[in-house]
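JOB MANIFEST
job_type = single_chain_structure
chain_count = 1
residues = 152
[input]
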Amino acid sequence: MTDHRIFAFWTLCLLVLIAPVLQAEEALGPQAHFDAPTSCAALALIRSADYPEAVRVYEEGHEPLSFEEADAAALGLLWRHRRTFAEDEAIRAFAELHGRSPTDAELSDAQSRWVRMLVSYPQPLREAVEQNCEVLFEIADRSCPTPLGVEP
């Protein structure tokens, strides 16, 4: 298959897979406002796992061994901030929906479901979720404190 046909095939598959989700979002209304930031929190959790340097440098307090490790640690910290920001948005949406804050178990369960879904999605579908999260992540990035020694 040519690149054009492969792209068209995945686009069609994506539309077929997303159409019921979009219809369900419209029908659910407020529930979708909880699921959207929860999916972004799950995505940020997955992405932060790509940067274990953040644990070594920021949690354990070790000096970075190289500029590359310092950059990777800063990216890991950014993904952690995005996750926290998305979780806070999910908590607000849940409170609007249910009139109370979610329990830690409810929030964790919802995020775990999204992690399982995202890791099982084909790459084009995961990329679509990433695109849906871009605006939330941009807002999160504007509120992110810059780690010491890292230039914005």
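[summary]
Confidence is low (pLDDT under 50) at residues 11-28.
The longest helix spans residues 67-98.
exit_status = 0
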